[in-house]
Amino acid sequence: MLRTRTLGFQLLLLQVGIVLLTVGLTGVLVVRLQQEQIRDTYRQQVLSVATSVARLPSVIAAYEEADPSTTLQPLAELIRESSGMTFVVITDAEGIRYSHPDPGRIGERVSTDPSTTLRGEVFVGTETGTLGESLRAKVPVRSDDGRVLGAASVGILESQLAADLREDVPVVAAWLAAAALLGAIAAALVTRLVRRRIFGLEPEEIAHLLEAREAMLHGIREGVVAVDEHGRIALANDEAVRLLELDADPTGRRAEQILDPALIPLLARDRPVADEAVLAGERLLMVNRTPAQVGGRQVAQVLTLRDRTELVEAMRALHGQRNLAETLRAQAHEFSNRLHVVQGLIELGRHQDAVAYIDRIGAGGRVLTGSLDAVHDAALGALILAKASVARERGARLTLESEGEVADGVGDDLITVLGNLVDNALDAVGPDGRVVVRLAVHDGQVTGVRVDDDGPGIAPEHRERVFEPGMTTKEGAVLSQHGHGIGLAQVARIAQRRGGSASVAGSPLGGARVEVSFREPA
Question: Model-level pTM?
Fold first, then answer.
C-alpha cells in the first residue's frame, strides 16, 4: 500500500504544477505574439518597399523604353539587395516579368494571379510562386495620368520569417525557464512557511486536534466565551450557551449584541477579573476573565462562567433549616422549663396557680401570626414557617395574610421571590419588629406578593436603584437593609419575565413596602 503523501509534498507539487502550467501557457502566448509581431513587421516592410518601387520616377519612365527590362532588372536587384527582400519583380500590364532574381524568368508571365493588382488594387498576403511560399505585396505601377502600367511585387520567403522566429525562441525559452525556476523556489518557500505556521502537522493530525479540542471545550461544566480583539464572539461552549441563553452558534456576532449587558463592562476593564459575582438574566454567575495570547500578542478575552444560582438557593435553604432547627431547640428548652414550673406548682398543691400559668403561656408557642391553613403547597408553607421561626429567634414577628387558598404546586419563582423579600424585611427590622406578608391569590394561583416592614425604610431617591444588580450599601447606608445587590435584582427580573413588575414604596407600618405582581401566575 502506497504511503500517503505529506501535506508539504502535496502543496509543493500543486504549486509547481500551477507554475509550470502558467509558464507554459505564457510561453505559447508569447511565441504566438512574437510570430504575429514579426509577420506584421515584414508585412509593413514588403508593402513599403513595393509602394516605393511602384512610385519611383525611373521605374515609371522605363515603361516608355523599347526594352524596359534593361533598366528595371538592375534597379530591382539593387533594391532587393539593399532591402533584404527575397525578390523584387516588376511586370507589365499583362503580368509579363521585367525583373526577377533569376534572370532566366524575365519575359515570362508571373506564376500567381496578377489580376487584382492590374485592376489597380493593392494586395498583401501569402502566395506560392517560383521561389516558394512567401509573404508578398503587390502594388500597381501607374502613369502620370493614373493609368495602370504594370505591377511591382516584393516578397520574402516564409522560411525566412520562421528562421527569424526561431532566433527569438531560445531567448524567450530562457526567460520562461528562469521564471519557472523562480516559481518553483517560491513554491518551496511558501510550502515551508505554511508548514511552519501549522507546526508541521498533517491534515489528519489537525482534524484530530480540532475534534479533541471541541470535545474538551464542550464537555467541561464551566461556561467558556472568547471575545476577539474586534469585539466578536470567537467561541462559546455548550455550557455558556445554556447559562447565557445564547443562540446555538453565536460565533462571529458582536459581543454587545449577544452577551448579557452585565458582562460587557468586564471585557473593558483593565484590571483582572477573578470570581466576580454577576447577575446574568436570573442566574448568579461567578465570572473570571483572562487574556488569550498568541506569540506575545493578545488575540482575545476569555470569560469563564460558573453557575452559583443553585448553590445560593441551597445555602439560603440550609440557612433557613439551621434557623428552624435552632428555633425548635430553643423552643424545646423553653418548653422543658415551663413543664418544670407546672410540675412544681402541682407538687406544691397550687393547682389554681398551675392552671393560671398554663392559660398565660398558652399562645406563647406560636411562631407565626396568621394561619397556614390557606397554603396547601408544602414547599411554600415550609418556607413561611422557617422564616417565621427566624423572625421569632430575632425577636420579631412575621404575619401572613392571604386573599384566598393557595393551591399545591407553586413554582420555584414564587419561592425565590418570597424568600428574598422576607429575608430583606427581616434584615431591616429590629427586635419587636413586624413583617407582614400578603399573598394575592386568583383561582388558587399566587398573582402577587406584598411585604411590609416597620424598619427604617428606603429613601425615595433610592427606590428605583434597589433593583439594579450589585446595588448595595451593606456597610451601613440605608439601602443595606434591602439592597443586597443580587436578591432584589433577581426578583425584578423574575417579575419582568412573568409579565409583571416590582416596586418599592413606603409602608403604613413605617418602613418599606416591596410589591411584586405577576401577569402569569407564579
Answer: 0.47
